[in-house]
Amino acid sequence: MNLADIFTIIGFVVIAIIVIVLIIIALYVYSVDRSQKQHPVLRNYPVVGRVRYFFEKIGPELRQYFFNNDNEGKPFSRRDFQHIVKKAKYKRDVYGFGSQRDFEAPGYYIRNSMFPRLTEELRMDNDTKVTTDRYLLIKDPLFTEREEHLEKDESSVYLLPEEDAVVIGPNVKHPFKVRGQIGMSAISYGSLGEHAITALSEGLGIAKGTWMNTGEGGLSDYHLKGGVDIIMQIGPGLFGVRDPEGNFDWDELLKKSEIPQVKAFEVKLAQGAKTRGGHIDAEKVTEEIARIRKVEPFKSIDSPNRFEDYGDIPSLFGFIDRIREHTGMPVGMKIVIGSVHEAEELAKHIRDLGQGPDFITVDGGEGGTGASYQELTDSVGLPIKSALPLVHRALKKYGVRDQVKIISSGKLFSPDRVAIALGMGADLVNIARGFMITVGCIQTLKCESNVCPVGVATTDPELQKALVIGEKKWRTANYVITMRKGLFRVAAAAGLDSPTKFTEEHIVYKDERGKSWTLADEA
Question: In what residue span(s) does the Glutamate synthase domain sit (predicted)?
Answer without folding.
Answer: 145-496
